[in-house]
Amino acid sequence: MTVPIQVNLRFFASVREQLGCSEQVVTLPSELATVGQVRDWLILRGEVWAQALSHDRSLRMAYQQVMCDSSEPLLCSGPNHEIAFFPPVTGG
Amino acid sequence: MKIKVQAADFDVRAELSALNTAQVGALVSFVGTVRTDDGVTHMELEHYPGMTENSLAGIAQQAMQRWVISDLTVIHRVGVLRAGEQIVLVAVASAHRQNAFAACEFIMDYLKTDAPFWKKEHGPDGARWVDARSSDLSSLDRWH
Fold first, then answer.
1. Which of A10, A68, B75, B115 could in theory staple to A84 by disulfide, Cβ–Cβ 3.0 to 4.6 A?
2. Could you report the predicted ipTM of this complex, rounded to two decimals?
3. How much is the pTM?
4. pLDDT tens, A15-72?
């Protein structure tokens, strides 16, 4: 049984520009258990979200500032949750 | 070990002198610069503060475990960079050159695929986000 958690969402680069938003605190419904499910839940918010987080693009995710894939489980305890969505990285 | 993410430029000579070179026979450094292809005038480098530093430190630590390294430095710049400017420095000090060359390449290869930096190029046709290259991912194969 999971409880609702507050999560800080972060968006970078083209994803940030598409959403017009770099950071947002949201309360997740308790049934969401993985980072991928958070993405799918955000996609339901509307056209802009559906495009920015689309499964047709290659999108990277990080949980607690560590790169992860969509099956990454959300921890049930602790106040500081951070999930980030961004395009593949291009440093160097 | 020194890991820095900064807006300011860096002095390669000063950074190399600052490395701990006790029992060192080899110093290998790599400097990446802003390309001047396609009339690019400048670029913006965005990053994910906090995660960036941890990611670079993690890559550097993996290199330290894999090769015998005396010291290393990774500096990556962020913000607005003009064509030709320095972006990144990786410098590795080791007793033998094979270790230093390999560790330097390893760090750059993983930095390109794992460290959360994004480049936006500005040129005659406006601004565009640089696409990730699949060749960067495949160059990791040699380390497996």
1. A10
2. 0.93
3. 0.94
4. 999 999 999 999 999 899 999 999 999 999 999 999 999 999 999 999 999 999 999 9
pLDDT band at A80 (very low <50, low <70, confident <90, very high): confident
Q: Is A10's CB within 8 Å of B50's CB?
A: no
CA end-to-end distance (rounded Å), chain B = 24
Minimal C-alpha gap between B110 and chain A (Å):
10
Q: What is the CATH number of the domain that holds A71?
A: 3.10.20.30
- Tell me which CATH code domain B2-120 carries: 3.90.1170.40
What's the total number of domains in chain A?
A: 1
CB contact under 8 A, B118 and A10: no
Closest residue, chain A, to B119 (C-alpha): A90
Q: Which of B5, B45, B51, B138 to mutate against chain A (most A CBs within 10 Å)?
A: B51
